[in-house]
Protein: VOC domain-containing protein
Organism: Micropruina glycogenica
Amino acid sequence: MGSGSISQDGPGSGTNGGLTKRRGPSPQPGAPVAGANLVVGVQDVDATFDRGLELGGTEALAPDDMPGVGRLAYLIDPDGNIFGFISAIMSDGTNVMG
């Protein structure tokens, strides 16, 4: 990890990120596009996702394990903003960060 990143154990040593495959059609030219992919590290993706639904969010991507990456989920807030949660702890309890 580069400078500024955060891990389960505390500050890391860098920025972490990645690209994901677009789901659905590409935006039409001139149409509004959400230009940021905000993903927040949490201890429990499933509990955070469920709480977000209770608070008025809608499912964009249900919690899912991504081998070698972690457990990830995305919500859409009432204003239409998409944001995600990630944890190094997979659904089976294994930690992808060792």
Q: What stands out?
A: DSSP finds one helix and six strands in the chain. Residues 36-90 form a domain with the 2,3-Dihydroxybiphenyl 1,2-Dioxygenase; domain 1 fold (CATH 3.10.180.10). The helical segments are 45-54.
